Each structure stands twice: as structure tokens, then as C-alpha cells.
Amino acid sequence: MYDQLMIRSLYNLDETIAVDIFKDATYPWEVLSKIGNFILTLGETLSPEEYEKQGDNIWIAKSAKVAPTVSITGPAIIGKNAEVRHCAFIRGKVIVGEGCVVGNSTELKNVILFNKVQVPHYNYVGDSILGYKAHMGAGSITSNIKSDRSLVAVSYNDEKVETGLIKMGAMVGDNVEIGCNSVLNPGTIIGKSSNIYPLSMVRGFIPSDSIYKKMGDITNKIVTVQP
Question: According to the 3-state scheme, what is the secondary structure of the chain?
């Protein structure tokens, strides 16, 4: 068992409408293949007083702000008070949590965004899960498939943890900050409350409460307690 890679170590499940998808899973990547069908089931249970069903299995909260230039392919759920900005491209199998920001020209595919996630400027997020209040700086992306199309494995300390998936982007914990123009390589796992420097190329497991400066240069955060 790899405790630091587990759902319980990365995410506060009180901060997503998708809590039930995680019930029978241990590691977050195990739910990626279930997102589409889960949305179809969950969508039919959403209150018509709070959500409007549009198009082909697209549920949009009435309190959400969705620009007229946005392209959304179902199944998808756009949560309460979310903001989806100009020319965002939502390609299906996407849950956008409450209070999220999906920015201009951002592309999402097979993704769960927990509440208050921000992907606000020119981001690509595919086959990934972003935890509560995670933020991706402008131009940062997830890379979700290896160049040789082999199965994705997570590098964890000196081990390779097999996922059995051809496509897997990043599992990003709660309150993670991703610096501008960074690339999260396939199989990246970032623990809660860690910071990734701008222009980083990230691979494997980054522990919680860390500062990632570059490959091989990861330091612990110094937490200052206010008097």
C-alpha cells in the first residue's frame, strides 16, 4: 500500500459533488474510467431548481456564469457559482465544482475539479483530478499520454506503481499551487499544499507541504505560526 498516493491523503471529499465516485477506490486514478457514466447518473438526481439540463447530458447550475463562446460537450456538470470564461473548451466527462474558475481558452477532458479550483488562463487538463482550491498558473498543463503510448506508472520513491492506464494526467491534491507554464507529466501526483515553481517539468510523486524547484530539488515548506 502506498499511503501518500491514496485518495484520503490527497483530497477532502467534502469538497466535491462527486464524492460517491471515490467510495470503492483506493487510488484516485482508479476513478478516471468511471467519470462519464457517473455524470450521467448524478446529473439525473440534480435539482431542476438549481440546475438546468442543456444539450446532450450537460447540467449547468443556474448560479454559474458561462460565457456564450464556451464549447461544452457532454456529459458534463458545471457546479454552483462556477465561472467558465471566454472560449473555454470542455470536451466531455467533466465535473466543474462549485466556485471553480475555468479560464479563457482552457481545455478540459475527463476531469474532476473539486470546489474552488482555478484553471484560469490557457490551461490543458486531461484525465486528471484537481483537489479543493488547487490553482494552475497561466499556461500550465497536464500531459496525459506517454510519447511511446506505453502504460503510465507513478514513480514513488524508488518504485514504479503501475496504473494500467494509457492515459493519465496528474492527481493534484488540495491547495496545490502550480506555477505558470509548468508541465505535469503523465502519472504525476502532487500532495496537499505543495507549490510548484514556474516553468517546471514535473514527474512522479511530490510530497505534501513541499516546494518543487526542479527535478531533484524539493524542499519542505516552513510553516510560520502566527502569535
Answer: CCHHHCHHHHCCHHHCCCHHHHCCCCCHHHHHHHHHHHHHHHHCCCCCCCEEEECCCEEEECCCEECCCCEECCCEEECCCCEECCCCEECCCEEECCCCEEEECCEEEEEEECCCCEEEECCEEEEEEECCCCEECCCCEECCECCCCCCEEEEECCEEEEEEECECCEEECCCCEECCCCEECCCEEECCCCEECCCCEECCEECCCEEEEECCEEEECCCCCCC
Q: Are 177 and 18 in contact (CB under 8 A)?
A: no
- Sites in the chain below the pLDDT cut of 70: 223-227
Topology at the third CATH level for domain 3-220: UDP N-Acetylglucosamine Acyltransferase; domain 1 (2.160.10)
Q: Rounded to two decimals, what is the model's pTM? A: 0.95
d(CA 157, CA 201): 17
Q: Name residue 142's beta-bridge partners.
A: 184
User: Kind of pairing, strands 159-165 and 152-156?
Assistant: antiparallel
- Domain ranges within the chain, ordered by starting residue: 3-220
C-beta separation of 75 from 43 below 8 A: yes
Integer Cα distance of 226 and 51 in angstroms: 42
* 177-208 tens-digit pLDDT: 999 999 999 999 999 999 999 999 999 999 99
Place of cell 464556451: 70
